[in-house]
Amino acid sequence: MARAVKAELIKTLGYATFWVLISLHAILFLLVLTIANKATLNFNGVESNILLSKPYTWGTVAWLASWFNLILALLFIILCGNDFLFGTYRRGLLDGFSRNQLFKAKLSLLLLIAIYVVVLITLIALFATPVLNSWENLFTGYGYILVLFIQMLGYFSIALLIIVLTRNIALTIIVYLLYFALIEPIIRLFLPDSAAQLMPVKIISNLTPMPDFLGIMAKHFNVNDQLDASTLNTLDVINNGTSLTQNIVVACLYIAAFTVLSYFVFKSKDF
Amino acid sequence: MHALLSINNLTKNYGTTEALCNFTLEVVEGQVLGILGPNGSGKTTLLSILLGLRYPTSGHFTWFNTPPNHVPTTRIGALIEVPTFSPYLSLYDNMRISALAKNISYNEIFPAVERVGLTPNLKAKVATFSLGMKQRMAIAQALLGNPKIIVLDEPTNGLDPEGIVEVRNLIKELNAAGTTIIVASHNLDEVQRTCTHVAILKKGHLQAFGEVNELLTSAKVAIVEVRNPESLIDFLNSNSSIEVIERMGNSFKLLVSKSEQQVTLINDFQNHGIVVNSFEIRNLNLEELFIKLVRK
Question: Using CB atoms, which residue from B53, B78, B84 is nearest to A88?
């Protein structure tokens, strides 16, 4: 298994597109976080960059980082698709790797990319936000970053399933984008709200919700919490369909299901 | 001599298409087995199944009397269809990946690359290679780890005449050093020159298998030129033991039984009013055997 992962790393680290996309992701995230930190939009006396101060820092960082999950998903599709495109899965099998080893190596790559992103985001956030101004409560709300990690796995697992089914990079990207932007939203229209909230993209997207800016503002105005919640509810800012914990559990189930399904498709097909 | 590969009733269907049908064969240590067949005859399907790329619909096979998934990877080297590699990586990096799959030291890369003459290109990106160089690289990947058995599917594809001679010599050298080789090819002349045994496939069915010399002496070829071809055609139509392999005007290439004598045959022709201008009888070559079996 370690040998297959090592082979995977040789292929990935030697691929220029990998470095382009991974750098693009890091630069864009750094840029957005810096702009968000420097921007001083004032809402009735409350500065917008309060979202990047404790204890809201990690929630906001996770939300901002989630904007770029698509770049990572595309990168993962390309990395998986290359093995079908260049026939390197065939070569691996001929040289003696098993389908099991090849699949697990790709899963390891998926995990390594997600871990790298968590580390990168944490480091960038530490230096590009005021979070390091004091050590107190430094990692309060860091759980949001771990939820972002699960979200990335969610995006990757859907990509993995599509690429093992289609074995074609361009087709996978089209199906992937269509599913996110069109197919699932249309399906959700025909489902009861309780079921629509449990659809994969909905669940996975809801893992990193937009920071509750109005709620935070309300707290800074010392507004009654109940009033705050009801106002936000009226404004449809808070998603009351499912709780974050419920989302995490369902997302993990989806990730497991997509991964197992991908494994069986990968294992059963001819090369 | 013991069987390195035993195939029993191997069948592969793609939907309703039968790509391989009850294929049974044994490859013994030291053989150079040529697998011949027209396009779509099942050669690549057969090799792909044997090398774990495809699943058989039914039947089974063993390598070294061991189920395929238990065979140490260093014991079999293979090249199937076209060379496959990461084009953006160097030759060395591609070879490193193969070495990792075979669980062997990177040091073994150098003799394999040297053997196919690509040492000066070790650090070059494979994307810059010509078709022939890619083919050599794929052969180097197959040679990695000094396997006991090497499976090559069209190994001379894309090679220039010099490269073809090198591959032929390489096959002979490897075989002389004790490596068993299975080679699928369209190049009948190459197979006749390099193989000790041959298996001929047609539409997934094994048409013939045996030692090349035995198969080539199983029948004879008569080349006859006649003045009245219609009479010869009438005679052939009434004589099922003689087949026409080729006709060019008044000249016929006929497949006759190995016991057939020149004098007897000429007498038979004359008795049927056939005027023979010239007559020659000789052993079959592989191309004639192939045409005979594939036409059936």
Answer: B84
Which pLDDT tens digit goes with each residue over B139-174? 999 999 999 999 999 888 888 888 888 888 889 999
Contact at CB, B100 and A3, closer than 8 angstroms: yes
Chain B residues whose beta carbon lies within 8 Å of the beta carbon of residue A16: 88
pLDDT in tens, B213-246: 888 888 889 999 999 999 888 888 888 788 888 8
DSSP string of B244-287, one letter each residue: EEEEETTEEEEEEETT--HHHHHHHHHHTT--EEEEEEEE--HH
As a whole number of angstroms, the distance between CA B198 and CA A74 comes to 48
Which uninterrupted H or E stretch holds A46? strand A46-47
Q: How far apart are CA A56 and CA A90, in angstroms?
A: 48
CA distance B286 to chain A (A): 30
* Separation between Cα atoms, residue B225 and residue B253, nearest integer Å: 9
* Alpha-carbon distances of A98 from A19, A102, B51, rounded to whole Å: 28, 6, 11
Q: Which of A217, A117, A17, A71 is nearest to B89 (CA)?
A: A17
Structure tokens at A264: 């069986």
Identity of the residue numbered A5: V
Bridge-based pairing state of the strands B197-202 and B219-226 = unpaired
Query: Which residues of chain B does A91 touch, with a Cβ-Cβ cutoff of 8 Å?
Result: 84-85, 97-98, 141
SS3 A233: helix
Query: Hey, what are A13's tokens?
Result: 């680290």
Give the best residue of A91, A167, A269 to mutate against chain B (max B CB count within 10 A): A91
> In chain A, which stretches have pLDDT less than 70?
43-46, 48, 217, 220-242
Question: Among B47, B4, B154, B32, which Cα is nearest to B19's?
Answer: B47
Q: Where are the domains of chain A?
A: 2-268
Interface test with B, best of A15, A85, A94 (most B CBs within 10 A): A94
Residues 45-64 of B with CB under 8 A from A: 48, 51-55
Query: Which ipTM did the prediction report?
Result: 0.84
Which residue of A88, A96, A270 is in closest CB contact with B54?
A270
Q: Where are the alpha helices (DSSP H) in chain B?
A: 43-50, 91-102, 109-115, 131-143, 161-176, 188-194, 212-216, 229-237, 262-271, 286-295
